[in-house]
Amino acid sequence: MADGLKLHFDVDGTDFTVAGECSSKVKKTLKQLGFDPELIRRVAIAMYEGEINMVIHANGGTIDVEISPESVVVILKDTGPGIPDLDKAMQEGFSTASNTVRELGFGAGMGLPNMKKYTDKMEVDTVPGVGTTVTLSVIV
Amino acid sequence: MGEKKEWHSVTLDQDICKGCTNCLKNCPTQAIRIQNSKAKILKERCIDCGVCIRVCPYHAKKAVTDSLDIPDTYKYKVALIAPAFYGQFSRAENIGMILSAVRKMGFDDVFEVARGAQAISERTRELLESGELLKPTISSACPAVVKLITIRFPNLISHIIPLKAPMEIAAAMARREAVKKTGLKPEEIAIIFVSPCAAKATEVRLAKTDGKSDVDFVVSMKEVYLKMAQQIGKMTEEDIDRGSVSGKESILWAVSGGEANATHTERNISVDGIDNVIRVLEDMDDEKLKDIDYIEALACPGGCVGGPLTAENNFVARSRLSALVKSIADVGESVDSDIGAAWDRPIVYRPVMKLNTDMKRAMEMIMKIDEFCENLPGLDCGSCGSPSCRCFAEDVVKGYANPDDCVFRLKERMLDFKEKYEKLMEERSEQDEG
Asked: Which contiguous run of DSSP H or E holds residue A31?
């Protein structure tokens, strides 16, 4: 087998209530593949944060997941506003989310920090006005 | 899958089953398939929640429990009564009447499970205060929920409170009390649990094989219901020779919200009904419930009063229970605190959803499943014998089902065949004419 298993998701940017559906599906697939529960937990939480970010800030996007026995790589791609100050965004508690979003219980400023914390490698490629691509890797 | 000791109380009566899809569609762990017009339970996935018993219109799904004929080797019989039982009888004026009637049915003594619940509540409050527990802490009282967690939520296992269920503690207390009263040996005493649910029967049977249950027999509430109702009808004031020694708090463990209330925590969740439980546990798994201290999760609607082996509907039973406890103190007579309440069996993850032990092979299977799924109608009708199209695709790739079991696929293929046949016939007649 060449590259392992690939999954693709389109994230709807208009509905908060379905955010998290993609990470749930990935969680189910990883369980079927027999991955360690702790690894599944890390992937699911990091991916969930990314999914939420896409809905809050970027009006949706796409997620590609590449699964192999050695690693799980999650690529979150959006065409949103980009992250103006990445260093600040990486600080715990820093958030640019709107009040409406905060009232819904999101926007605590833990998105990117949690994504970094729960994965082994995180790459952020962001261009203001063009979009953001976050690549998360968890090594088995 | 050769799991050892895979015994379940929930079983199927093949002769009565019509192969309809009611149980198939409602099973929360997708543990049922229909093969050759009969339901089949995949044992490794069954959590004994009893949903199938409740939804089967033909009563083909049953719970195997013990009969009331207790062997003579037992010299003293103690009935262990779950508080859900108190809500079953329209003519019972007080709990003392119910307990006295149970004894009159042929038991030497009666012991209330609510006393075990009181002990567990006390220990739970201590543990929650000690800060040793992972939060949210999940109740261990419902065996179906504990089993669900072991097959579906491995990351939540460490959040289950390491305490036995009230039934077990009450059984140990009852035996100890009976030994003291009679001077008999512990093994000469029979502890008979009158159960609202199948999961308890399974739990006891499994624990007994390890010598780790104090319950000797589990009988169904339904089975004793008629006899009890008649007995209660005959009762006079003089017949009532005992009263409840339990408090309101522990008796209300029988209904959703009761156990959580007894933890005295401010931020707790009471969730009942297995589908609701799954929703809450999924949220917890996604770390969305970090502000919650305690989760009481009960598989049956309304809590234990909604158990598949109860006789009365759970709304009526709840109403009766709240009337019965009105004049009772919040906390009952003090209970033995040195009774061993700590959980003595390890709870381990059982990866029953895993497709194959070889991960590369499992990946190939997922690709095949996705591919096959594309050609299915997505109606989740269940006619093929699997609960959903996705599940059917999994069964086909695993080799447990035939692609033509999907009636829609079959229809398409037949139409295709018809078209080809008609075309062929047309060509032929043209040739003949030519």
From this structure: helix A21-33
